[in-house]
Amino acid sequence: MSVESMLFFVLAAVAVVVLVRWVANRTGLPAAALLSIIGICYALLPGPDVVLPPDIILAFVLPPLLYSAALDSSLLAIRRNLRTVVSLSVLLVFLNAVMIGIGFQWFVAGATLATGIAIGAAVAPPDPVAALAVGRKVGLPPRVLTLIQGEGLLNDATALTILSVAVASATGGGFSAPSALGQFLIAAAGGVAAGALVAYGVRLLTRPLGGDPLMANAVSLATPFGAYLLGEKVHVSGVLAVVVAGLIVGHHRPRSASGASRLQTSAVWRLVEFLLEGFVFLLIGQQLPEIVRGLARYDPATIVIAVTITVGVVLLLRPVWLVLTQSLPRSLHTWLGGQTFDDDRAGADKTRVAPSHDRVSQRLTGRDIVALSWSGTRGVISLAAISTLPLVTANGAPFPNRDLLLFCTFVVVLITLVGQGLTFAPLVRALGLRADEVDQARLRNEARSAAVEAAMARLDELAAQPHDDVETHAIETMRGQLRGQLTHYQDRRDQLSSTDLVHVPVSPRHEAALYVRREVIDAQREELVQWRDAGRLPDEGLRVLERELDHEEGLLPTRPSR
Fold it and tell me: How does it sit in the membrane (predicted)?
């Protein structure tokens, strides 16, 4: 493919990604599923297809996507749900791999336990991108979103580690359960250590560079690749290193980074995530012709049996596992992953962890289990993982059933990504599973009030120090502004406390103030542009003043006040 053709293809892909995002925003359909369908349609047309290189995906696409997701995750929320997250991202992944491996060994001609475990490990980890996009749009409760996100961050490392052990066994390296467990533990522990080390180094760099958003942003973009490279070089889980680094950096970012750096870094990562995810899901569908061509030498019955085993285990084991873990006795359930709350706490206080003697286990509800069961969409990670299978074994023989394993993986990705992806939002709406918006708004309002009260306390400290009349005027002016904010938050608290509505009530006075402020900002921006057009203000000055207005406008809520 020539440079011009490649450039044309990239521009066309960007156009398709943008168009699909526009359609998804207006129809509520998941962009991931739509892009995969378009990729399949393109693959069926005459013309060149783009091959999905697994090494490129694992080294250049997966690290930034995982790191971006980890930055936006809550380390504290994952820690509170750690046992549940581990049961889904480690134990369930392991069970998927073993059950599919046994099924292939028993029922698929020519398959061994090792090859079955290899495909089981590849299809085991859900790719939460589509589920999270839909879940946030339809308003899933925060705990369910945390479980989906936490599982998606950790299960890739588990699956890729199991896959490497299975491939080593299938290619002639021999299989030993104690040895495999030891390799897994070393890879996981080493990945955590590598990620923590990279995060510590990033924190050291952020302090002197925090004042320069461009340098801080460059460090942020390099971090996932550095974590992945370190993990792979020391032969531990590079994927887990990326996730751990992102969780730690994201947790400490409010203290270590400046406001300007956070704004720019967040914007850049949103763009990177948007484009990478769009390209990846678009390319998934284009792999179909190449995979189908490799099935010519297989008996149709063998193909049907292999696909049935793979899809059946993936779709059925997840809800069964969730039901079983939630049906355990309370003490065992708590050990395995029950979240804990205090009985007599209510509202916003549920975000705090109760003392151990006041804890009770809060199990997933039936609606939570159904939503989590249907959120297990597979994606590019599964295809990239199975594509890393070697072509030949140690003795030079073809890797057993490689084309069949690729096809089964593609079918699982297609069924879950398109089937579950397109029906996830209607299912959540039918379940009536929504976050308590009033409770969340009440919590945010209390946090705002506490922040203003802390600011007023700092003003009292400044007022007690020696200062001149100019500083006195500045302190009193700021105190008046803070009192106005506190009064608004107190009125909002009373309004939220007295409402019985499911949705957050709208304050007409506040909405009117927001409307007037937006109109004022628009008028200021139009006047500045007229000054530039008339030659009275240089473009550099316009950009400085316009950026000030843009930041002020960015502080205004885009939806009714929360």
Answer: Multi-pass membrane protein
